């Protein structure tokens, strides 16, 4: 498409100009899901297809749980990916919705996350769902944390 001269390009620009900035719509989704699920917090992660880990963006609601998810992102996700238990493995083994700390094969990392992140925040459960496109590429994820056990949250 040639910029400016193609009606499709102009229609696309018009549509894009009406979208909320990503931070705002991620916050709106997180707040709605947090209320609907009765969870303590929800994190919405988005990324370009095929670009997981390099450029994903993350919004946590309520905001006072953001530091917890930054610790997950910076301290735990790289280790989990290196061990082969990243999103592709999780989707293949458990489907799109699962409780990562309950099904992790690497029990020491799961217990470390439970002890260093969830327990100090008075959280018991954590459930994740991956958002994938038709080709199976990760577009984002939702993480829901709460005072209920993961199994209860899955229900």
How would you sum up this structure, described in words?
By secondary structure, the protein is an alpha+beta fold. The chain has a single domain, classed as 2-Layer Sandwich (Beta-Lactamase). 48% of the residues lie in helices and 19% in strands. The protein has a 5-stranded antiparallel β-sheet with strand order 2-1-5-4-3, sandwiched between helices. A hairpin with a 5-residue loop joins strand 4 and strand 5. Helix 3 packs antiparallel against helix 6. It is globular.
Characteristic terms for this protein:
globular, Beta-Lactamase, 155 residues, single chain, 7 helices, five-stranded antiparallel β-sheet, alpha+beta
Task: Supply the number of helical segments.
Answer: 7
Give the CATH architecture.
2-Layer Sandwich
Task: State the fourth-level CATH superfamily.
Answer: Transcription factor LuxR-like, autoinducer-binding domain
Strand content: 15-25%
Main sheet: which strands, in order across?
2-1-5-4-3
CATH class: Alpha Beta
State Rg: 17 Å
The structure class reads: alpha+beta
Main sheet properties: 5 strands, antiparallel
For this structure, the CATH topology is Beta-Lactamase
**Poorly predicted ranges:** none
Q: State the shape.
A: globular
Query: What is the helix content?
Result: 40-55%
Mean pLDDT: 86
Oligomer: single chain
Whole-number total of structural domains = 1
